[in-house]
Every structure is written in C-alpha cells, then in structure tokens.
Design goal:
8-stranded mixed beta sheet, binds iron/sulfur cluster, alpha/beta, TIM Barrel
C-alpha cells in the first residue's frame, strides 16, 4: 500500500523506548502554535512511499534496535492515513518488532482502532489542560485526546503522555495539577514527559512564508521544566 511520508529517521532516540526507526507521516489536521513540523501539515505534500519499501529500510536497521527499540509512526499525524499506518504496523508486528504510535489522539473510529490492534505503545500528546486553551492553541477540542486516552485505558494499551511546556502558557504548577487530575487512576499511563518548548523550527516557518504563531514566547529553560516534572504524579 502507498502512503505519503514526510521523512524517516533511522536511529531515533526520543520517540519511544530504545533506538527506533521513526516514520514521519505527511498531513496533520491540527495547528499547534508551537508545531516544529509545519512542513508536514499539507496532506498532499511529502512523498508517496510503499509500505514494502519502508519495511525493507526498517529491517536493515533492526540490528540497532536492541531489546527495547523498534518502530515509531510519527508526523504529522499518522492516523490521517489509517489504512497505511495499519498495514505498516501489521507488517512490523509480523517481523516481531516493537511498535509505537505518536498521535494527537484527534481521531477514534473503526479505522483508528484497527491501527491500535498493532500498536504496542502510544505516545499521546495531551497538549493543554483546559478546553479553552486546547482549542485556541491547537485547533482541537480537548475531549478528543481525553476520549482517546479513555479508550486506551479500556483496552489496556500502554501510553506515554507528552506535553510541550511553553513559558507564559503552561509553565505553572496549576497546569501540572490539572494534568495530574486528568491522568488520575489511569493504569495505562506508564510515563509522563514534559518537553521544553524550543524555537529551532522558526526557520521552517520563514522558508514556508507563514508566521510562527509562538514566536512571541521565549524558549523554555530545561531546568525549569525538570522542576515542573517533579510535580507530576501518575
Ligand atoms: S499535532 Fe503535531 S504535527 Fe500536528 S500541528 Fe500539532 S505539533 Fe504539529
């Protein structure tokens, strides 16, 4: 099957456990103000690629995966091309590989559920902790990722929650307290990662000739984000 891919990273270390082959899908329905991959937004962009070709590339990297590594689908939003994602993950599982899905959780329907049939770990972005901020800064209703999380809990699929910390928006104790409340009692949550907002992507926006919405906010200090991380309970 053919899908549209932005790029691949053969030895990724930040998108799930161990060393991973990361496939960045093309296309995303959200518009997060801090997005560092605006060049993945256009569903018609990227390159048409066969699952078979991706699997060949993945298997060449297999010796580096070790015990914990594997394959991560990221983007963009992999669930925008659910049949393609499903086939790729199914092929990876048939090879005995560990699979992860990095998603905004915007979509939960039969097609998305079939992708989860072949997913060992979900990296779920819970981007904000109030409905008003969620909609304003991402264009997505907060109910969607929360419903997605609920579904993962029902199925017992392990999740790592991720949130980008932006100074002046969510770099405060109240945000972490709300996050703790949203995650309370969820046995599927195995890890919570707070990620410092950075502005390396500004050049991409310049190249595309579009404004970088969060250019007005300073980059986050990693030490302050580390301090906030200590308040996370799950
Ligand atoms: S969901 Fe990810 S790729 Fe899509 S706009 Fe947000 S940060 Fe960017």
């Amino acid at each position: 099957m053919t899908g549209r891919i932005h790029s691949v990273q053969s030895l990724g270390t930040v998108d799930g456990p161990g060393i991973r082959f990361v496939v960045f899908f093309q296309g995303c329905p959200l518009r997060c103000g801090y997005c560092h991959n605006p060049d993945t937004w256009d569903p018609a962009g990227g390159e048409a690629t066969e699952t078979g070709e991706l699997l060949r590339q993945i298997l060449r990297c297999r010796p580096y995966f070790g015990e914990n590594g594997g394959v991560t689908l990221s983007g963009g939003e992999p669930l925008l091309q659910p049949e393609f994602a499903e086939e790729l993950l199914k092929d990876c599982k048939a090879e005995g590989l560990h699979t992860a899905l990095d998603t905004s959780g915007y979509r939960l329907d039969a097609a998305a559920e079939r992708v989860l049939d072949y997913t060992d770990l979900v990296l779920l972005d819970l981007k904000m902790t109030t409905g008003e901020e969620y909609l304003r800064y991402t264009g997505c209703a907060m109910e969607k990722p929360l419903r997605f999380l609920e579904y993962l809990e029902e199925r017992g699929i392990p999740v790592w929650i991720r949130q980008v910390i932006v100074p002046g928006i969510n770099d405060n104790n109240e945000n972490i307290e709300r996050l703790n409340r949203l995650l309370a009692g969820k046995k599927c949550v195995k890890k919570v990662e707070l990620l410092p907002f950075h502005k390396i992507c500004a050049v991409k926006y310049q190249k595309m000739g579009i404004p970088f919405p969060f250019d007005i906010y300073p980059a986050a200090d990693p030490a302050s984000v580390e301090q906030l991380s200590k308040l996370v309970i799950f």
